[in-house]
C-alpha cells in the first residue's frame, strides 16, 4: 500500500505570493542562464 512506484502524471511546485516564476523553451540552459544575468 502506497509504495509510490507509479509514474507521475504531472509535476507541482509551491509558489508563494510575490514570487515571479519564469519558463523558457527552445534555448539551451547556457543561453537561458546568460539571459538571466543580462536581465
TrEMBL record:
Encoding gene per record: rpl16_5
Family as reported in the entry's similarity comment: Belongs to the universal ribosomal protein uL16 family.
Keyword NADP: no
Record flagged with keyword Ribonucleoprotein: yes
Segments crossing the lipid bilayer: none
UniProt superkingdom: Eukaryota
InterPro entries cross-referenced by the UniProt entry: Ribosomal_uL16, Ribosomal_uL16_bact-type, Ribosomal_uL16_dom, Ribosomal_uL16_sf
Keywords of this entry: Ribonucleoprotein, Ribosomal protein
Any one Gene Ontology cellular component term annotated for this protein: ribonucleoprotein complex
Signal peptide: none
Name of this chain's protein: Ribosomal protein L16, L13
Amino acid at each position: 500500500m502506497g509504495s509510490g512506484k507509479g509514474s507521475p502524471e504531472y509535476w507541482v511546485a509551491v509558489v508563494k505570493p510575490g514570487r515571479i516564476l519564469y519558463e523558457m523553451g527552445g534555448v539551451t540552459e547556457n543561453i537561458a542562464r546568460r539571459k538571466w544575468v543580462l536581465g
